[in-house]
């Protein structure tokens, strides 16, 4: 089962930026751990700081992959275009955040993408990704489809 982990802006700096919020591990190191923990899933990873590139990736895999785990970073709270892209594809998306967005600034507490995602996970550090992958791993193939 093909699953994409898609990370948005500034997540390429995990392990070096705001360690008190985001921890001290790079996502690349954590991704290796995820691949070992989920051998039944065919995991791929992509990160971009550019909104259009994230949209292109959603379009690229959004009709062929079985799931997308998406941390849109700050675009979560601002991007109608990403919201529209998620709405347009067939592949279910689970929104993830490393920090608890509801314990942060008020503007971070509104997600533009959440209404078009299967669900949202936030506040568990990098383990938010593991929780999302567990969701996809436990689904039976006929349960994966999701349309708003």
From TrEMBL:
Enzyme class name: lyase
Positions of substrate binding: 71, 77, 84, 98-99, 108
UniProt KW keywords: Amino-acid biosynthesis, Aromatic amino acid biosynthesis, Lyase
Gene3D superfamilies: Dehydroquinase, class II
One Gene Ontology molecular-function label: 3-dehydroquinate dehydratase activity
Catalytic activity of the protein: 3-dehydroquinate = 3-dehydroshikimate + H2O
Recorded superkingdom: Bacteria
Keyword Lyase (UniProt): yes
Residues with site note (Transition state stabilizer): 17
E.C. numbers: 4.2.1.10
SUPFAM superfamilies: Type II 3-dehydroquinate dehydratase
Active-site residues, as the UniProt record annotates them: 22 (proton acceptor), 97 (proton donor)
Gene Ontology biological process terms from the UniProt entry: amino acid biosynthetic process; aromatic amino acid family biosynthetic process; chorismate biosynthetic process; quinate catabolic process
KW Amino-acid biosynthesis (keyword) present: yes
Functional pathway: Metabolic intermediate biosynthesis; chorismate biosynthesis; chorismate from D-erythrose 4-phosphate and phosphoenolpyruvate: step 3/7
Xref: CDD domains: DHQase_II
Function recorded in the entry: Catalyzes a trans-dehydration via an enolate intermediate.
NCBIfam families given in the database record: aroQ, PRK05395.1-2, PRK05395.1-3, PRK05395.1-4
HAMAP family named in the record: AroQ (MF_00169)
UniProt similarity note: Belongs to the type-II 3-dehydroquinase family.
Subunit structure: Homododecamer.
Protein name: 3-dehydroquinate dehydratase
Organism: Pontibacter actiniarum
Recorded name of the encoding gene: aroQ
């Amino acid at each position: 089962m093909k699953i994409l982990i898609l990370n948005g802006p500034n997540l390429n700096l995990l392990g070096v930026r705001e360690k008190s919020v985001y921890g001290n591990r790079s996502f690349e190191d954590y991704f290796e751990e995820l691949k070992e923990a989920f051998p039944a899933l065919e995991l791929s990873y992509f990160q971009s700081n550019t909104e259009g590139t994230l949209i292109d990736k959603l379009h690229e895999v959004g009709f062929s992959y079985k799931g997308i785990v998406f941390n849109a970073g700050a675009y979560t709270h601002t991007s109608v275009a990403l919201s529209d892209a998620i709405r347009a594809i067939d592949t279910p998306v689970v929104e993830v955040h490393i920090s608890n967005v509801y314990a942060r600034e008020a503007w971070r507490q509104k997600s533009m993408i959440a209404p078009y995602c299967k669900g949202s996970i936030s506040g568990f550090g990098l383990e938010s990704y593991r929780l999302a992958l567990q969701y996809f791993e436990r689904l039976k193939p006929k349960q994966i489809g999701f349309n708003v």
